[in-house]
Every structure is written in structure tokens, then in C-alpha cells.
Amino acid sequence: MIPISTMPWIALLDDDEDDFTFWQYGVETWAKPVVLKWFLSAESFLAEASRASSKPTAIVLDGIVPDDDQESWLTTFLGHMCCQNIPIFILAGQFSQAHQERFLALGATGYLLKPSSTDELQAVILQVIDKQ
């Protein structure tokens, strides 16, 4: 068995505990041996990722910064040493072509719709895992 400290991990930056629980179920079901780590703020993620013995294999951003500040945070993540060459996904409650184009142009790996069923969750988890 792989020690948890050296297991590959995905960072979920989300302010909703229910979302984390749902995602945790999905990762445990369709993405073993990957671990999901939950962060309530960008600052807490950057602090943890800077200290961690391994980088995350993917980052999923949802609901941790105001809408008008998402672009600057995405730029911060893309430029931070702990996030180099790591897929960064923007998770959104609604599809917006303009937002998708803007985030992808800035360097996000993908723009994902927030899953609301287990089938949608499986598809999103597999899409994130596929980009690692």
C-alpha cells in the first residue's frame, strides 16, 4: 500500500463541504489511488502545496474567490512554483462561452460544469484524471 503522504493528489478549492463530500466519493470510486485534498481558500492551498512533498496532479477551482477575481487567481496559480505543468480546471455552475474562452486563453486546462448527478460526477472525474 502506498503511504498517504506520497500518494498522488488532486486539490479541490471549494467553499462548500457538500461539494467536497460528493467529489470525495467520486475520486474514491473512479480515481484510486488518487487522494482528494480540500481547501477553503487559495491561500491555504498555496501554503500546503508549497510545503508538500509532492505536487498535486490536478487543481479544480470552484467558489473560493469572487467572480471578478477569478482571472487574477488563475494567473497566480499558473505562475506559482507548486502549480507548474499541472492541469488547472475551472468548475462552474453554469456554462458561459465567454468565461470558458477567457479562462482557456489565460491557460486553464479545462472549463467544467459542476456535476449534479453521479453520472456527471464520473464524467468530470475521468476528464480530470485523463489530463494528469
SSE layout and pairing:
Elements: E1 9-13, H1 17-30, E2 35-39, H2 42-51, E3 58-61, H3 70-79, E4 88-92, H4 97-106, E5 110-113, H5 118-130
Parallel strand pairs: 1-2, 1-3, 3-4, 4-5
Please provide a written account of the structure:
Residues 9-129 form the Response regulatory domain. This is Response regulator. The protein is an alpha/beta fold. The chain has a single domain, classed as Rossmann fold, CATH 3.40.50. It contains 5 helices and 5 strands; from the N terminus they run βαβαβαβαβα. A 5-stranded parallel sheet has the order 2-1-3-4-5, with helices on both faces. α1 packs across α5 (118-130). The model has no long low-confidence stretch (mean pLDDT 87).
Listing every helix as H and every strand as E from the N terminus to the C terminus, the arrangement reads EHEHEHEHEH
% residues in beta strands: 15-25%
**Backbone CA Rg:** 14 Å
Average pLDDT works out at 87
CATH evolutionary superfamily: Response regulator
| Ends distance | 21 Å
Number of strands: 5
Q: Report the total helices.
A: 5
The helix/strand class is alpha/beta
Strand order in the sheet with the most strands: 2-1-3-4-5
Q: Major β-sheet, in short?
A: 5 strands, parallel
Total domain modules: 1
Q: Judging by the overall fold, what is the CATH architecture?
A: 3-Layer(aba) Sandwich
CATH level-3 fold name:
Rossmann fold
Keywords: Phosphoprotein
Protein name: Response regulator
Organism: Spirosoma foliorum
